[in-house]
Design brief:
The chain has six helices and five strands; from the N terminus they run H-E-H-H-E-H-E-E-E-H-H. The protein has 225 residues and is α+β, with helices and mostly antiparallel strands. Strands 1-2-5-4-3 form a five-stranded mixed β-sheet. The structure holds ligand 0O2.
């Protein structure tokens, strides 16, 4: 991996250098896409196996993304770091992102534990925003993992951020993200009221998640006989 290259990628004074740097950036993003594929396959295997044994899918769907160049740039800039390959791979944990949306709250912890237990996965960081929701109501289970990816040049450990949440948590987070970031509601008058209302919606989702979990616990897992 080209982590020793400290070239400032935004230097456009030399077009040839700029084209070279663009190719290097694209190569690094390709490596993150490959890391996503590795982790996604592991999740799909777990989901398949679980569905054969328990007659239901713990994972409703998986979404993946590689962080956009402008978001990478902004995140590095915020902490006063230059847009270099070394800084991207050493300072950012979420260039490769996977969102796993589960049916029930206990599925989140099952999937997280099964993944963490695999011997080629190293868990670097966990943020449990389900047990400790953010003050705005955001809930999700975040894991930063490192996984080896085999390229022609050899094995490279790559970091991937995995967000695991229920359909309810995802519904809330997706709409809140749209409202907060896309519409810039933080600047508008009456933002406090909107914040309170979003928190009330989050509370409604918690109560629905808990009720669904309780009903499932009452029914038990689904088997043939
Ligand atoms: P995007 O567009 O989703 O990528 P870290 O360096 O990882 O320790 P960081 O980056 O603050 O610190 O990580 P954290 O707290 O685990 O949250 C990162 C991601 O979680 C965000 O990515 C969002 O996807 C999601 N998230 C966190 N808080 C909220 C929230 O209040 N509302 C919503 N809707 N999503 C949230 P990005 O980079 O913000 O954006």
């Amino acid at each position: 991996m080209e982590t020793k290259d400290t070239t400032q990628w935004l230097d456009t004074s030399d077009p040839r250098k700029f084209i070279e740097n663009t190719a290097k950036f694209n190569n690094l993003m390709m490596m993150y896409r490959c890391a996503i594929r590795e982790v996604q396959t592991k999740l799909e295997v777990l989901n398949d196996e679980f569905s054969v044994e328990n007659k239901r899918n713990p994972i409703s769907f998986i979404k993946t993304r590689v962080k956009k160049p402008e978001s990478i740039y902004r995140k590095l800039q915020k902490t006063g770091h230059a847009f270099t390959p070394e800084n991207i791979s050493t300072l950012l944990n979420d260039v490769a992102g996977i969102r796993v949306v589960c049916a029930f709250v206990d599925d989140i912890y099952t999937i997280a534990a099964l993944l963490a237990g695999q011997d080629d996965i190293t868990v670097l960081k966990i943020k449990d925003y389900i047990k400790n929701p953010k003050p705005n109501g955001y809930r999700s289970y975040h894991m930063i993992v490192e996984i080896p990816v085999f390229f022609s040049s050899g094995k490279t450990p790559m970091r991937v951020e995995i967000q695991i949440r229920t359909n309810g948590m995802d519904f809330w987070a997706t709409l809140e993200h749209q409202l907060r970031y896309k519409k810039g509601i933080e600047e508008m008058a009456g933002y406090d009221k909107v914040s309170r209302e979003l928190l009330e919606c989050a509370a409604a989702v918690i109560s629905m998640d808990n009720e669904m979990q309780r009903i499932k616990d009452e029914i038990g897992e689904f088997h043939d006989i």
